[in-house]
Write a structure and sequence with these properties.
By secondary structure, the protein is of the alpha+beta class. The protein contains eight helices and four strands. The chain folds into two domains: about 5-85, no CATH class; about 95-180, Glutaredoxin (3-Layer(aba) Sandwich). It is about 45% helix and about 10% strand. β3 and β4 (about 160) form a beta hairpin.
């Protein structure tokens, strides 16, 4: 993995910001300050602080992570280690709607790879990427907990099961059409 690839996936590392980061609005660090004041400053609170940062911002902004290292006993190394170890943490914002395709055992043997490929082709993105319009982010997950519906995917909190690649594309087309109507001026 090259240094540039690492910076794009983990913008908390040294170097220039990841592609597109300069287009993001500045974050409100008073929210980070409030989280630290409410939660505490000790090293053992790293996961709790990261979870709260992600709940507030939707991801872990580099500015907020730097603020945490400057105002707590949590080191940059600890934050990076924890945030890259757990899949729940993200370094980049997600789209308005999160699509999760299950790749657990039941879904895997029933065609999860074909469902993921259909979604990737339809949206022109890969796993952990967001569409250019910011509407969708795609993630493959280990299990959605609905094995009897395999293969399955979720869009936000709605589960779709017993999918074929064609059904997955139809769901995405319908969902996208509904969003255009919903977002119309």
């Amino acid at each position: 993995m090259s240094a540039d690839t690492t910076r794009e996936q983990y913008p908390f590392t040294d170097g220039p910001p990841p592609c597109g980061a300069h287009n993001r609005p500045a974050i409100d660090l008073t929210k980070t300050e409030a989280i630290i004041e409410r939660t505490g400053k000790s090293r053992d609170l790293c996961i709790k602080i990261l979870q709260e940062l992600q709940a507030v911002y939707g991801y872990l902004p580099a500015e907020a992570l730097h603020y945490v290292t400057e105002h707590t006993a949590i080191s940059r190394r600890q934050i990076y280690g924890v945030a890259t170890f757990y899949d729940q943490f993200r370094f980049t914002p997600v789209g308005r709607h999160l699509i999760r395709v299950c790749h657990g055992t039941a879904c895997h043997v029933n065609g999860a790879n074909r469902i993921s490929q259909a979604v990737e082709d339809a949206l022109r993105i890969k796993n952990k990427e967001t569409t250019e319009n910011g509407l969708f982010t795609l993630e493959t997950v280990a299990c959605l907990g609905c094995c009897s519906l395999a293969p399955a995917m979720m869009i936000d909190d709605t589960t779709y099961g017993r999918l074929t690649p064609d059904e997955a594309r139809k769901i995405l087309n319908k969902f996208s059409a509904e969003q255009k109507i919903y977002n119309a001026p």
